[in-house]
Each structure stands twice: as structure tokens, then as C-alpha cells.
Amino acid sequence: MVEPVFILPDWPAPPNVKSLQTTRKGGVSRAPYASFNLGQHVGDAPEAVARNRALLQTHLPALPVWMEQAHGVETLDLAAMPAADAALRPIPRADAAVCRVSGKVCAIMTADCLPVLFCDDAGEVVAAAHAGWRGLLAGVLENTIAAMRVAPERILVWLGPAIGPAAFEVGAEIRAAFIAHAPEAEAAFLPGMPGKYRANLCHLASQRLNALGVRRIFGGDCCTHTDKERFFSYRRDGRTGRMATLIYLA
Asked: How far apart are CA 34 and CA 214, in angstroms?
């Protein structure tokens, strides 16, 4: 076992806003989950996942609030959660988390979908959202910003590692659904194989954020599919692990 390798988001968040992106490096899981897999639902040995999560915990002020992600738009308010031991709570079903208190950690797990971190410029509220194409189309980013209850011009956003447009092909019906919502979404799709289009998740997310008035957007330059050394990718490997994207108020 080696120490996990993290990515520290490069964005001008206030000093009390702490964020962390895990990679697949470090930990104890064996192939095809090698090695810092944090997902309990992917077929990895439970004891390996538990050891990896315990290792992650040494770098955080509290247990992350893990969620059962469903590619939806439900947003969890961590401040409203009971103070009971997080390890004993039922896992909430949601695809975004918002927090205004210190000591609680928002967490998103991904292996191609786009993880999105949010904070306000005063360091009073943070959030994390799981944004695959289904969540983006359904409005998970819009719901997350609404739950933050902060003027959009005061919000900063970081886009984490996700499958890039060179590897992410979708059907014409998905492209049409995005364009029906906003015609400018056409620019986020390029022709791929016959009947398919290469979709740019980061571009689609930025368009949605811009439409709400969010202008300060960072990150979005890591492709999970092409960088096999650092990232898990479901589309590339099928059976694989999950990374975590985390944010909290210190």
C-alpha cells in the first residue's frame, strides 16, 4: 500500500474552503479496482474499500457524507442532517450536496461523469454535484445553485476529471434533447461515428452555468478516459473503481 495521490483543485476559493480530488493511485484494492477505489457498489472487496476510505479519512476533518447517486437532481443539505455517527446513517439518495457549516464533507463519486465543486466568494457555503449527461440535462447544476441561495455572480466553480469529448460518443437523441433546452448546446457536440456525436460535458456544464450568471469557472482539463494511469473510467474499462471529489468548510 502506498499513500494516495490527490489533485488539489486550482481555483481562487477562499482560504477556509477546502477541496480535494482523489485519483486511482494509492490504496489497497486489486485489479480491476487498483488501487484507491472508494466505491462500495462496484464489486470490489468490502475490506479493501473500507481500508481505502479509512486512509482518505486521515486527510479530512470528518467522514464524507456519501450518497447513493442516481443521475438525478436531488440536492442534500448537510447542515440539516442529524449529528449522529455518519457511518451508521442510511445512505441518502441524491446527486448533489450543499453545506453551510464547518466539519461536514460533501462528496461525489465518479468514473467518467463530471464532478462539479461550488463555493461562494465569502466562504460561507460549498457544494458538490454529480453531473453526467443525464444529470446535466435534468438540471442538477441549476438545482445545486438554487440550494446554495447565493447570487450567481458570487459563485466560483471547479470542474473535475471527466470523460473528454474525444472519447464520449452519444446518440443523436441526446444531442437533440440538449439543443431543445438551449440552442447554443449544439456547439458542445461534434460528429463522431455514423449516427453518433462526441459530447463535451465540460462545455455543456459551462453553458448551463453561464446561463445562470456564473462566470468564474475553473478546471475541466482532465480526461478520465485517456489518462488510465491516474483515473478510473467506466466507459473505458467497465469493471472499475470510483474516485471522490470532496469539499468542506474549515
From this structure: 37
